[in-house]
Amino acid sequence: MSEHSRASGCPTTSSPANPDLVSSQDATPVDVDVVIVGGGAAGLSAATVLARSRRSVVVVDAGHPRNAPADGVHAFLGHDGLPPGDLLARGRAELASYGGEVVEGTVVDAAVPAGADLVSVTAADGTTWSARHLVLTTGVVDTLPDVPGLAEHWGTGVIHCPYCHGWEVRDQRVVVLATSPAAMHQAGLFHQLTDALTVVLHDPQALSSDDVARLRALGIDVVEGPVSRVLDEAGTLTGVEVPGGTVRADAVVVASFVEPRSPLLTSLGLDLTDLEMMGRVMARSVAADPVGRTAVPRVWAAGNLTDPMSQVVMAAAAGVRTGAMVNAEMVTEDQARRLELLG
After folding, report:
1. Confidence check: pLDDT of 119 > 70
2. Fewer Cβ close by (within 10 Å): the C or N end of the chain?
3. What is the spatial distance between Cα 99 and Cα 151, in angstroms, rounded to a whole number?
4. What does the pLDDT look like over 306-340, one tens digit per residue?
5. How far is residue 143 from each of residues 146, 183, 217, measured CA to CA in Å?
6. How many whole angstroms separate alpha carbon 265 and alpha carbon 259?
7. What b/e readout covers 319-339, taking b as 16+ CB neighbours within 10 angstroms?
8. CB within 8 Å of 24: residues ≥ 6 apart
9. How many CB atoms lie within 10 A of CB 110?
10. Is the pLDDT of residue 27 over 60?
11. Mean pLDDT across the chain, nearest whole number?
12. Are 44 and 88 in contact (CB under 8 A)?
């Protein structure tokens, strides 16, 4: 029995649909059907699908959601404008209603022992679980350009996605910080929302002279950079400082570099894939097939971990799909084991 099971009463037998809760090949007892690392939209969605399928599931969550600074979730049908924390609270309550469990903590190690048909999972406090399957939904980290003030306003005055924040800055003064060729894409999307758009050439190599000419022909101001700092008054972003003075702004658009940083990726030997946009690597993700199956047996991944550009609704949908596929895999395992016992 795992340390967690002893401490909190987490059952070491499954729901009635799987009374023995053993791994399918060697009948090794396990603590839980599935451990999910990461309690965001993808993790809670996967867990709820599994719990509704009468699987025992534990979600281990470190409590650092990527969208925590944002005021609300958008483009999520029926939940538009809902604060991110409220969405997660609802998700946890729904999961609990089906018998799923959320544990606060950080998972620091996971492995698939040689010859064993299970995954061993270890948390920072020493709690351990053995599970039939492991689902990683730990998300990603956004790295911003090294400009004073950007990080302080990230998710409020400093934004990256027109579909997450664009409506809120419509018709306002918006600065696009050009750090890569992707700034052309951002400028086009935000120009759809406001005519008061300025592109600042933070990286002088980000855009070609033809790009700059196109922007100016479209009525978009282009200003030489770099940006030395973000300006604010009483905590509200007011503009950016450039060599020629100040560009007033209500919001700054920036492309972050997005990548997973979970220690589990190294311990499990999972590969990362570079994602390019306009000839430059903009993000990294965990390699997985369309349903979340990784190259490591019994280890799955979903959400921003495999698709860094997904919004919350897309991450939730990916969690549903992966949770369903994990359950289907266990159904096949259970049937094979029962047939073997009968034979």
Report:
1. yes
2. C
3. 39
4. 999 899 999 999 999 999 999 999 999 999 999 99
5. 9, 16, 32
6. 12
7. bbbbbbbbbebbeebbeebee
8. 117, 132, 330, 333, 334, 336, 337
9. 23
10. no
11. 90
12. yes
pLDDT tens-place string over residues 36-89: 999 999 999 999 999 999 999 999 999 888 888 888 899 999 999 999 999 999
* CA 233 distance to own-chain centroid: 32
Instruction: Give dist(CA 216, CA 301) in Å, integer.
Output: 43
DSSP string across 162-192 = HHHHTGGGTTS-EEEE-SSTTHHHHHHHHHT
More confident residue, 18 or 295: 295
Structure tokens at 202: 């933070």
pLDDT band at 199 (very low <50, low <70, confident <90, very high): very high
- Burial of residue 15 (CB within 10 Å: 0-12, 13-18, 19+) is middle
Question: Would you say 315 and 42 are in contact if contact means Cβ atoms under 8 Å apart?
Answer: yes
Q: Is 211 helix (H, G, I), strand (E, B) or coil?
A: helix
Q: Where are the alpha helices (DSSP H) in the chain?
A: 3-8, 41-52, 84-97, 162-165, 183-191, 209-217, 263-268, 312-342
Cis ω before 226 (30° cut-off from 0): yes
Residues with Cβ within 8 Å of 254's Cβ and at least 6 positions away in sequence, in order, are 144, 145, 150, 158, 159, 160, 177, 179
Instruction: Quickly count: other Cβ atoms within 10 Å of residue 274's Cβ.
Output: 11
The span from the CA of 291 to the CA of 152, in Å, is 36
Among candidate residues 306, 230, 254, the one with its CA nearest the CA of residue 46 = 306
> Within a 10 A sphere around the Cβ of 54, how many other Cβ atoms?
15
- Cβ neighbours of residue 299 closer than 8 Å, sequence gap 6 or more: 110, 112, 119, 133, 134, 136, 268, 270
**What amino acid occupies position 274?**
D
How far apart are the C-alpha atoms of 61 and 339, rounded to whole Å?
37
Which DSSP state fits 55? -
Burial (CB count <10 Å: 0-12, 13-18, 19+), residue 190 = buried
Q: What type of residue is 156?
A: T
Instruction: Name residue, tokens 């499990």.
Output: 268
